[in-house]
Amino acid sequence: MTKLDHDKIQSAVRQLLEAIGDDPDREGVQDTPARVARMYEEVFSGLNENPETHLQTIFGEEHEELVLVKDITFYSMCEHHLLPFFGKAHIGYIPRNGIVTGLSKLARVVETISRKPQLQERITSSVANALVETLNPHGVIVVVEAEHMCMTMRGIQKPGSTTVTSAVRGVFEHDAASRAEVLSLIQ
């Protein structure tokens, strides 16, 4: 993947400021193009990362019961409007053959996947798929709750509205009782 082009971003932001009728040389915004380029490097750092690399750290532990990490905060950018959306992800999995990963690795997967122009639905399924591909667990459940600035500050303008998406794999697809148990723990 190519590295972020600071010069192109700065030029585009300068043109954007001109296009909205602002003076890009005005004191308050003259450094904005460089600031936006630095911010985009951080916000879109997931474009150059493979989230599955975080799951390569595994441990042998005789545990084949639910592992649940709740309230993983994330920030992302809507690919439709380039406006932020943010919220919490909840990840549960049932290890197979005692293969577990570090809890922080689950948060790193969410962070990597969310740091690119994104859709909430894609974040949810991508996190679930990464766990299935690398850990081969009995089951995975991912629930993502987020507020989208493209809905709250523009368009319909409904601040505080939350979108919830879920992805279930393995035993959680077919076992309604197990799925309900995890969902009750997330609440």
From TrEMBL:
Q: Which gene specifies this protein's sequence?
A: folE
Q: Which InterPro entries match?
A: GTP-CH-I_C/QueF, GTP-CH-I_N, GTP_CycHdrlase_I, GTP_CycHdrlase_I_CS, GTP_CycHdrlase_I_dom
Q: Which reaction does it catalyse?
A: GTP + H2O = 7,8-dihydroneopterin 3'-triphosphate + formate + H(+)
Q: Which domain of life is it from?
A: Bacteria
Q: Which GO terms describe its biological process?
A: one-carbon metabolic process; tetrahydrobiopterin biosynthetic process; tetrahydrofolate biosynthetic process
- Sequence positions that bind Zn(2+): C78, H81, C150
Per the UniProt entry, what species is this protein from, by scientific name?
Geomicrobium halophilum
Task: Report what the protein is called.
Answer: GTP cyclohydrolase 1
Q: Which regions form coiled coils?
A: none
| UniProt cross-references to CDD domains, sorted A to Z | GTP_cyclohydro1 (cd00642)
Domain GTP cyclohydrolase I residues, every copy: 9-186
For the protein in the UniProt heading, the enzyme class is hydrolase
Instruction: Give the record's family classification.
Output: Belongs to the GTP cyclohydrolase I family.
Enumerate the UniProt keywords alphabetically: GTP-binding, Hydrolase, Metal-binding, Nucleotide-binding, One-carbon metabolism, Zinc
Q: Which NCBIfam families match?
A: folE, PRK09347.1-2, PRK09347.1-3
Give the UniProt entry's GO cellular component terms: cytoplasm
Please describe the quaternary structure of this protein.
Homopolymer.
One Pfam match: GTP_cyclohydroI
Q: Does the keyword Nucleotide-binding apply?
A: yes
Pathway, per record: Cofactor biosynthesis; 7,8-dihydroneopterin triphosphate biosynthesis; 7,8-dihydroneopterin triphosphate from GTP: step 1/1
